[in-house]
């Protein structure tokens, strides 16, 4: 869904239907349903000291860092001197709730509806997209498991993979419609970037001096539950819920041992790393090095 982040108290003024025009320095051609996100930015001192403005919210609770209502963006109007003067004279409350200067734009909002359950999110610049976990699974349904070799899709993992693989950007994975788990986790990270759910990514590997089988996966915490988000491992594709993070990691470890190692492994050679976002276009060895510089999970 399309979302616009707005500082307080202006986001709450929209939710409370005290403000129907959002003022911006830039024009948008978008028209349609829009969700309003109250950014985490503190209320500016000049606004706190503006008695007329703050009186409009009547001590309403402000949900910093949450999507709080939805509306419809129906128009975007270039501000002229006449437009500003007319608004100031005939709708002073609206004039009070924005920054009106010649050359700026008035985004006209309608059908404002508060959300019963505000959605926690980090927010972003411009108009951005918010996806819940089920929508992200759906967005990834066309991504096959494999990699790009000389601009051709391939499912072979031999010396050509070791020598030629490069970690894709999220957009490349979308465009190519293919990626191994390393690529797909970065696409998942991209889609989850605005969700304030304590996102973590992991790399599990068994060092056997031969193939060194690995898997990467993404987890998140939501409403005191822990979730394993899995797309690339087809056998376990979906969203899996756990009561504790330990339960989650042990379950994935056991599945990796059973289904990827066929229960043939040495415990000392099986390592789980928590790793941060890597650079794109790195090689197989560089990706290993990046993950191995992460946090070892005991």
Mind explaining what this structure looks like?
- By secondary structure, the protein is of the alpha+beta class.
- The chain folds into two domains: 2-129, Roll (Archaeosine Trna-guanine Transglycosylase, Chain: A, domain 4); 133-296, Roll (C8orf32 fold), CATH 3.10.620.
- The protein is 29% helix and 30% strand.
- The chain has helices spanning 10-15, 45-48, 51-55, 81-90, 92-96, 133-139, 159-164, 170-176, 181-192, 245-260, 284-292, and strands spanning 2-6, 21-24, 32-38, 66-78, 105-120, 127-129, 147-149, 152-154, 200-206, 214-222, 225-230, 238-242, 270-275, 295-296.
- The strands form three sheets. A six-stranded mixed β-sheet has the order 2-5-4-3-1-6.
- Helix 8 (170-176) crosses helix 9 (181-192).
- The protein is elongated.
- The model has no long low-confidence stretch (mean pLDDT 95).
Q: What is the CATH topology classification name of the largest domain?
A: C8orf32 fold
Cα end-to-end separation: 39 Å
Task: Please give the domain count.
Answer: 2
Counting DSSP H or I runs of 4 or more residues, the number of helices is: 11
Low-confidence stretches: none
Determine and state the CATH class of the largest domain. Alpha Beta
Helix content estimate = 25-40%
Beta-strand proportion: 25-35%
* C-alpha geometry: elongated
Query: Helix-strand pattern, N to C?
Result: EHEEHHEHHEEHEEHHHEEEEHEHE
Total number of beta strands: 14
**Strand neighbour order, sheet with most strands:** 2-5-4-3-1-6
SS content category: alpha+beta
Radius of gyration: 24 Å
Oligomer: single chain
Largest sheet: 6 strands, mixed
Calculate the mean pLDDT score and round it: 95
CATH architecture of the largest domain: Roll
């Amino acid at each position: 869904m399309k979302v616009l982040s707005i500082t307080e108290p202006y986001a709450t003024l929209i939710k409370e239907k005290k403000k129907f025009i959002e003022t911006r320095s830039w024009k948008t051609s978008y028209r349609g349903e829009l969700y309003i996100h109250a950014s985490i930015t503190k209320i500016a001192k000049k606004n706190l000291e503006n008695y007329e403005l703050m009186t409009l919210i009547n001590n309403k609770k402000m949900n910093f860092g949450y999507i709080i209502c939805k509306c419809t963006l129906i128009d975007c109007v270039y501000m002229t001197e006449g437009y500003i003067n007319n608004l100031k004279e005939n709708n002073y409350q609206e004039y009070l709730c924005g920054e009106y200067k010649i050359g700026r734009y008035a985004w006209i909002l309608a059908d404002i509806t508060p959300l019963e359950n505000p959605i926690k999110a980090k927010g972003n610049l411009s108009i951005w997209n918010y996806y819940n976990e089920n929508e992200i699974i759906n967005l990834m349904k066309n991504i096959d498991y494999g990699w790009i070799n000389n601009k051709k899709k391939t499912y072979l993992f031999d010396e050509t993979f070791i020598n030629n693989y490069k970690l894709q950007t999220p957009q490349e994975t979308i465009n190519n419609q293919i990626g191994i788990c390393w690529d797909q986790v970065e696409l998942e990270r991209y889609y989850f970037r605005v969700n304030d759910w304590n996102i973590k990514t992991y790399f599990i590997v068994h060092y056997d001096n031969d193939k060194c089988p690995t898997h990467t996966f993404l987890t998140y915490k939501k409403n005191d539950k822990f979730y394993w988000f899995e797309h690339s491992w087809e056998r376990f594709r979906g969203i899996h819920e756990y009561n504790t993070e330990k339960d989650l990691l042990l379950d994935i470890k056991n599945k990796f041992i059973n289904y990827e190692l066929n229960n043939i492994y040495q415990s000392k050679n099986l390592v789980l790393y928590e790793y941060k976002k890597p650079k794109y276009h790195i090689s197989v060895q560089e990706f290993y090095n990046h993950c191995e510089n992460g946090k070892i999970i005991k």
